[in-house]
Amino acid sequence: MPKIKLDKSKCIGCGTCWVLCDKFFSAGDDNKSTLKGSSNGQELEVDEIGCAQVAVDTCPTQCIKIL
Ligand code: SF4
To answer: What is the pTM of this model?
Structure first.
C-alpha cells in the first residue's frame, strides 16, 4: 500500500494541502498540516493516493511525499 509522508519541520502552514485534499490533510494544533488518522500526523498508509498527489504537486515547500 502506498504511504503518504509529511515532513512537518518543513511545513509553513499555508493550508494548500487541506484545502485541496481534506480527505487526508487537516490543520493541526501547531497550525501545520497533519495527516488525518495518523498516530504521529506524519505518516499514513492509504489504499489509494487520490487527491494526495495534488497536495504533493502544489505544496510550496515540497514537504509531502508519496512512498
Ligand atoms: S501545502 Fe505544504 S506547506 Fe502548505 S500546509 Fe500543506 S504541507 Fe504545509
So the answer is: 0.96
